[in-house]
Every structure is written in C-alpha cells, then in structure tokens.
Amino acid sequence: MSRLTYERYGPFTKVSRAPDENLGAWRNDMVAIWNLSRMWYFTRDDRYAEKAREMLLAWANTQTEFSGRESMLELGDYALQFVGGAEILRATWPGWQEADTATVKKYFKDVLMPGANPYGESSFGAANKGALSLVALGLMAIYNDDIETLDKVVYQTRTLAHIGLRNSNDIGMLGDSLRDQGHAYGQLKSLTMLAEALWSQGIDIYSDLDNRLLAAGEYFARVNELVPTAALPFGTTDAYYPSDRTGHGWQGANGGNVALTQIYGAYVLRKGLQAPFIAQRRLWMPLSDSSFMFLKNSDISKATPPPALPIPSTTSITSGFSSADIGGASPAGSATYAAGKWNVAGAGYDIWGERDSCHFAYKALTGNSAIIAKVESLENTHPSAVAGVMMRTSLDPGAPRAWMATNYKGQVLQNMTKLAVYGGSNYANKVVSSGLTYWVKLERIGNIITGYVSPDGTNWAATDVGRIDAPVPDTVYVGLVVSSVTSQLNNSVFSNVQITGGDGGAPRVIPSAPAMLLASPGDRAVPLRWQASFGATGYTIGRSEFSGGPYETIASGVAGSSYTDISVVNGTTYYYTVTASNSAGTSGRSPADSATPVPSMVNVATGGAANDSAGNATNAKRAFDLNTYSQWLYAGVTGWLQYDLGHTERVLRYSVTSTPDANLVERDPKNWQLQGSNDGSNWTTLDTQSNQKRFELKTYAVANPGSYRYYRLNITANNGDSAFTAISELGLFVSRPQ
Predict the structure, then answer these.
(1) Is 80 exceeded by the pLDDT of residue 437?
(2) Residue 693 burial (CB < 10 Å; 0-12/13-18/19+)?
(3) Between the CA of residue 345 and those of 28, 43, 482, 490, 690, what are the distances in Å?
(4) Which end of the chain has the lower number of beta carbons within 10 A, N or C?
(5) What is the pLDDT of residues 121-134, one digit of tens each?
(6) Distance, CA of 314 to chain centre
(7) 288 versus 396: which is more confidently predicted?
(8) Contacts from 681-687 at CB under 8 Å and sequence distance 24+?
(9) How do strand 639-650 and strand 707-718 relate by DSSP bridges?
C-alpha cells in the first residue's frame, strides 16, 4: 500500500459497515492514500503524491453514502489515514490545487461526517464507540476549517460522560477498562488522537480533569505490564462491570504504542510530568507504521486549556422540596428531612416505561442541574417498588423524563421516556447492576440528561444518556421519586442528598476512606493517584518503608486526588496510604500500594550484533528486533543467546518476552543465568532464575551488575518441550539520567 504499483480497489458510490458493503475496498484505499502521501513527504518523489491525489479525488467525486450500523466505528478507526493523507498533500505538495481542497472538504462534509454521527446530536454509542465518532468528526472539522463543528466536538469531548474524558474515574479507569483491554485501548487511542489534533490547533484538553489522559494511559500500561492492580466497579451505557473480568498482559496494537507514544510526548516531554508505567512499556513496545510518526525527543509547543466546563455543582438540601403525586398516585405522599436523611413516602402504580405514577419531591431548576442521592432503604411493598432520583420536563403524567432508582433487591434500574436515546428503549430501560451500587445521580447539561450509578458517591459511571428534543425547556423538575406499585405508601430513606441550588445545611459526616490508591515507580519520584471520597475537603498522605506501616505523614491538606512524592531515593520500596478529611473528622486509611522508584531506563540491545550457541546470527537477532511477533526459535532445550553491544554498559535490568503463541508454552525458558563478559570468552554470572513459568513479558533486576560489552542468556532448561526453546525478545536496560 506504499508502492507506486498499488492498484486501487474503488471507488464506489456506497460504502457500508454492518452490513459490510465495499468496506474492504474503501479501507485499503484510505490506507494507501495515507501511505503514499507519506512516501511523497519522505522521498519528495511527485509520483507518490500524484497517485495519492488521484485515489483520494476518485473517491471524493464518486462516493455519496457511508452507512451501516457501525459506520462511525470505521470512520474513527481510519480517520488518521484519510484525513492525515489529505492534510499532507494539502500542506506540503506543490501540485495540490485549491479545487482539490474544495472537493475533499465537500466529501468530508456531505458523505463522511454524516456517517460519523448517524444517530443524531450527542447520540453516540458507549465508550470507545462514541470516542471513535468524536475523533473522526474532530479531524475532519480541522481539515475543513469548520470551527462550528470543531467547537461542538471539543464541548462534547469534555462534557459527555458516556464517551469523552468524563467517561473515566480518578484513578484512570475508562468506561471500557473492565470490558476488555482491546476496547479499552481503542477508547484511549481515540481520545488521545483527538487531544493531539486539538493541541495542534492550540487547544489543550490534556489538562482536563487533573491530566486525566495521563491517568488513563498509566492505568492501561500498569495492568498490561502485569503489575497487580485492583479495580473499582465502572462501566458504560453498554454495561456496568462490578469487577474486573479482563485478561491483563494485552499486547495487541503493538502494546498500544500509538496512544502511549502520544501520551508520553504530551505529558513527559511537553509538561515535564512522569509516566512510569508508560515509560516501562515503551522499553519493549515495537515501532509500527503509525507510531513512529509520533516519536520525538523534545516538544516545546504550547496550547491553552479551554474555558471551564458548565458542569453543574451540587450541595446538600435540608428543605425546599415541593411535593407532587403524579399519575393518580394515592394516598398522598410526603417528604420530610431529619438528621441528614430524607424520608419519602409515596404510592403510585409504577414508573417503568410509559407508566408514570409516583410521589415526587422536587425543585424546579433552570439551566444545568444535577441531583445525587444514596438510597439507604425502601419498603418491600411490591417487587417492582422503586426509590431514586428523577428529572422531568413537567409535572404532567407522561412528560419526557429520566430516572435512576433502586429496588429492595439492591438492583439499580434506569429509565428514560420520550427522550432520544442511542440504542432505543433497550438502552433506556434496563437493570444496570445488582447488589453493589446504591448511589444514583442525574445531570442535565443543555439538552442532555445523563444517568449515573456509583458504589461510593464519587466513582460515577454514566449508564444512561438521553436527549431532550425541541422544545427544550429552560426549567426542569428535579428531585426524589418513590413508587410503591400498590395503594399503600412506601417509606424510603435517602442519605447524602445533594442538588444544584441546595441550601448546604446538612451536617458534615466523616468521609469514607479513598476506595483505591495507585503508586507508580518514577525516577526519584512516586506519583500517586486515588479515588476521591465523597464529602472530603482534603487528603493526608502516609508513607512507610515497611509493609503495614507505621506510616509517617508526608503531606496533608492535599486538594484533589493526586500527589507526587519527590522525597524518595531510587531503589527503596515505599508503602503508601491516604486518608480523607473534612470538618467532621478523618477517615480510615485507604488500601495501601507500594512503589520502588527507579532511574529512567533505556534498552541498549539495539545496533549491536547477536549470536547464539548454534552460531546462527540471523536467528539470534530476531530476539533483538523490537518485534514481539518474531522469535528466536532454537533447536535444543539448552543453549545461549548472546548480544555484543560493541561497547561496555552497566545493565541494571533485563526483560524476557515469551513467544506470542500461547500453545507453545513448553518452549519458554525455565532456568537460566544472565552472564556478562568483556572478551566474549570469560563469563561472569550476573543473575540466576529458576522455575520460571509462562509469561508474556517479565523484567528482572540484575543481582550483580557490572560494566560489560557482551551479555548472554544461558538457558539450562525450558518448560518441557523436547526439541525447541524460544523467546520473542530479550531486552537489556541501563540507567539514563533525565
């Protein structure tokens, strides 16, 4: 697809994904346009640009439709290619004409942009699906100089909590993090690609939410570097995941090299922050035909964070709710407050779907607004009885509305009626979770209402999103709802009720301990992130050099949910906990996490000469080509793999990556010594390992480091294969001061 002999597959008037129609032809030609445009840029051979232009204009002048249920996924997956190729031609090739730009702009606007957003304003699929829509729309808007669309994309990326930056939590989990690592990476890649494109326009969304994309990249790298990592319940409008069901150690997409390379450049090189787990993963990630485009040694470019978002705040409410018995609910209900809790008694014959009969304790709120509540209890008046929070456009029965509620079984339910919802009624009306989640939330921003669930009042997962279509009211009715589904009152109790425009009169209570803390092994620093605690106004960091403490306070009054400890010594293991505080007192300790800060490491096993005990240099160098899909396949169960650096280096760590074929686990090395030499004949054992089982990537500290020119892995046993031993990569790492 980079050759002048490439023969295009299209164009066609119609392309569709799900059902697929002419999809492979379009995909291949878009990649070829990208590759040929780059070939022009690198070689300055006009023939490459001419071929790319001819192909791009052929599609632009022919295709009139991009459709299918998953059209936005395809366009997001290939936005870098077709927009990137077009941008290279427009910006760098003298043969490009203004008429060509006009043709491509029309193609993007009339054909591809509608395919990137086929379900209407802000109606995007969950998590990675919506992120793919945003990156496609954003990149095309930049090419088209379409400021209106670009402003909308920036707004949606920063506000829509089911697909954008807010589809994440404080520790860096994304909506798809507990679905599987491949889709989690897809979401991360789309958001990062968009952030990088926006940076080139002077817009810095990398700074949003306490550098949230750095947190997301670090979390992804950490779990896939096989560092033991707990998870918090989280999810999307597709599914809510109470626990982590994913397989860690994912190596798809070359380890995630495109997004992680961009994140490293954005935060480490531009902003001077540390990304320890991304840096660790970059030591072995191979280059690819896309990731090399984002490699850099430094970056002094600037961009400006956009204005603060109109995210509605909330505060406690102790009085001021009005009451309504909607849809013939009888007997009349009531709502009373005492000692930090609301007791709402309500009847009604159900609020599920089109049914709308309940007691509603509400405030009329103009503009953006939100309500939060923890459902402490409700009576079992009927299996379908519910208690929760509601927003509605009027008090008339059947009005457009949204609610999030729980029942006596501990199930969280959601419903949006007469609102436009991606996925239709199956998405709008469903059981979200069972047994773990009791906090519910609704939020209105503009004409979008989002429903959330949480186990703790801060780790909010957006599970339902609806759009109020015209006329959009200035005022909506926001409050607590109870439906007994009988003719008797259901007494339900709510705590931690907060609403936009509340009175703030509820007594403070001691916050819960942060649910999770993550520590990262930086260079002379340990970056910390934790999940915030509801009601906390500050945090205290405790540190110890012993597991279990005792802990000394190293920082107090910390605002936000991140802190970097720079009073550390490389090579020492530190254990951390965090407590949350407010005027009522201080929580217990968070779960502990530990980190051992280490110097910045560089893989020096490049540019030298490889060999093995069979004298097969060609075979041996496959273990040093930074390609995890090639392998050193050695005929024997014992033998050595050697590398000549050509100069001496003090190797402090080394890594062994097993072959990608999980069916050949017996070929993995089991016992070995890492040895060093300065003459290739006399060897010193630097580290010994035994009984090593199947792994994808594992790193080891060199027990007795020294300065050597030659290093070899002397394998004395494999894991049972009688004929072959194999590894994918051998890395040799030295310290390089930052």
Answers:
(1) no
(2) exposed
(3) 62, 75, 7, 5, 66
(4) C
(5) 888 999 999 999 99
(6) 26
(7) 396
(8) 683/712, 683/714, 684/708, 686/651, 687/654
(9) antiparallel
Q: Token digits for 39?
A: 């070939």
Q: What is the mean pLDDT of residues 104-132?
A: 95
| Nearest-angstrom CA–CA distance, 302 and 122 | 30
Please report which helix (H) or strand (E) contains residue 50, including its range. helix 46-62
Residue 538: half-sphere exposure toward Cβ, Cα within 13 Å: 10
Nearest to 540 by CA among 588, 574, 501, 499: 588
Q: Is the pLDDT of residue 501 over 80?
A: yes
Which tokens hold the place of 195? 């952030």
Q: Which amino acid is at 526?
A: V
Token couple for 585:
């007192």
Residue 425: enclosing H or E segment and its boundaries?
helix 425-428
- Residues in a beta bridge with 75: none
- The Cα–Cα gap between 234 and 240 comes to 6
User: Per-residue pLDDT for 117 more than 60?
Assistant: yes
Task: Tell whether the torsion through CA atoms of 267, 265, 235 and 219 is positive or negative.
Answer: negative
Q: At what angle do helices 46-62 and 23-43 cross, to 10 degrees?
A: 150
CB 235 within 8 A of CB 174: no
What are the Cα distances from residue 431, in Å, to 105, 213, 491, 578, 604? 44, 30, 22, 34, 53
For residue 456, give Cα distances in angstroms to 160, 176, 240, 462, 481: 21, 20, 15, 14, 20
Q: Is the dihedral of CA 63, 68, 71, 74 positive or negative?
A: negative
Phi-psi region of 554 (alpha: psi -120 to 50; beta: other; left: phi over 0): alpha
Residue 738's pLDDT band, with cuts at 50, 70 and 90, is: low
The residue to which tokens 């599914």 are assigned: 239
Instruction: Give 108's pLDDT tier (boundaries 50, 70, 90).
Output: very high
Tell me the percentage of the chain whose pLDDT exceeds 70: 99
DSSP track, 466-501: EE-PSSPPSEEEEEEEEE-SEEEEEEEEEEEEEETT
pLDDT for 239-285, tens place per residue?
A: 999 999 899 989 899 899 999 999 999 999 999 999 999 998 888 78
Give the pLDDT confidence score for residue 434 in this predicted structure: 81
Cα separation, 571 vs 260, whole angstroms:
25
Burial of 721 (0-12, 13-18, 19+ CB in 10 A): middle
Angle at alpha carbon of residue 456, lines to 333 and 422, rounded to 5°: 75
**Token pair 């709008």 is at which residue?**
428
3-state secondary structure 59-112: HHHHCCEEECCCHHHHHHHCHHHHHHHHHHHHHHCCCCCHHHHHHHHHHHHHHH
The pLDDT confidence band at residue 737, using thresholds 50, 70 and 90, is: low
Residue 618 neighbours by CB under 8 Å, 6+ apart: none
Amino acid code (one letter) for 211:
N
Residues 338 and 319: their CA atoms lie apart, in Å, by 10
Q: Report CA dihedral (256, 260, 261, 262) to the nearest 10 degrees.
A: 120
**Alpha-carbon distance 463 to 170, whole Å?**
17
What is the distance between the alpha carbons of residues 151 and 298, in angstroms, rounded to a whole number?
29
| pLDDT the model gives residue 736 | 78
Tokens coding 627: 């390609």
Cα–Cα distances in Å, from 36 out to 31, 96, 106? 8, 14, 22
Residue 118 in this model has a pLDDT that exceeds 70 = yes
Peptide bond into 737 cis (omega under 30): no
Average pLDDT for 302-331: 96
Token pair 């990398």 in the structure block, residue? 206
Where does residue 429 rank: exposed (0-12), middle (13-18), buried (19+ CB within 10 A)?
middle
